[in-house]
Amino acid sequence: VQLQASGGGLVQPGGSLRLSCAASGSFSSINAMGWYRQAPGKTRELVATITTGGSTNYADSVKGRFTISTDNAKNTVSLQMNSLKSEDTAVYSCYAQARNYIGDYLVYWGQGTQVTVSS
To answer: pLDDT of 62-78, one tens digit each?
Structure first.
């Protein structure tokens, strides 16, 4: 399974960015997708997750500002980030929990995309 992320960049505080991640390859189904981030000198933290059933989970620090969505038919996940703050600056990585053809659920990671919030 390959995950291709896009949409990072430089934005001013208060601005918006949209990250997208597409899963491709050989798998039976995807159970959940989401985003983690890691800022310099900090541990990786969960940003948001969504199941194929539509259940979502957000880090407290992004609730009300970020929205995660998925297109199950296209195996993609998006993260709309509004009201960005400098503390949102990090490398954002998408993941997918996919079921293979023998019934195992495995987690796959995409390459990180840099989000920088700065004036």
So the answer is: 999 999 999 988 899 99
Residue 58's closest CA among 50, 69, 48?
48
Residues 6+ apart with CB under 8 A from 19: 5, 6, 7, 8, 35, 78, 79, 81, 92, 94, 113, 115
With b meaning 16 or more CB within 10 Å and e meaning fewer, what string describes 63-72?
eeebbbbbee
Share of residues in the chain with pLDDT > 90 (%): 83
Give the whole-angstrom CA distance, residue 111 versus residue 8.
Answer: 12
Rounded-to-integer distance, Cα 16 and Cα 28, Å: 34
- State both tokens at 71: 């297109």
**DSSP H helical segments within 58-119, as ranges?**
none
Any residues with CB less than 8 A from the CB of 60 and at least 6 apart, and which? none
Task: Please give the single-letter amino acid code of residue 116.
Answer: T
CA–CA separation, 22 and 13 (whole Å): 27
